[in-house]
Amino acid sequence: MPVNRIWVSGRLDYECYNGHARIINSEATPVEFTADSLLEKSTTSVFVINDAKGNFSAGIQRSPGYYESTRFRNKIKERGKEALFNDFKKMISTEAEISNTQIDSLNKYDDPLFIKYTLEVRQG
Fold first, then answer.
1. Separation of alpha carbons 23 and 27, rounded Å
2. 106 CB burial (10 A radius; 0-12, 13-18, 19+)
3. Is the pLDDT of residue 5 over 60?
4. CA angle at 36 for the pair 30 and 40, rounded to the nearest 5°
5. Residue 3 carries which DSSP code?
């Protein structure tokens, strides 16, 4: 494990939460970093509108936790915003269109992302 796995916000990378460690001080104080001690909160809101033909439109708002936001930021940096929304689209088992995409707090590393988009599914 690399010694300096710290993100911009001063938090340790989640991969560092793997057991026993020592604080670098005169006492070499022992600490335990367990994955179970990480608390990650994520919120997703979905507002669905159906029509008589079985089509629907969903307004989706996601606020992922710190570590999931970090993964999304890395994906956006590597592949672009469109790739993130294309991955969301692939999770749907039917033909869908995504529009009205918005990502807030992309460069505010201490804040979670706020992801907003519209998903439309048309039947036949």
1. 8
2. middle
3. no
4. 120
5. S
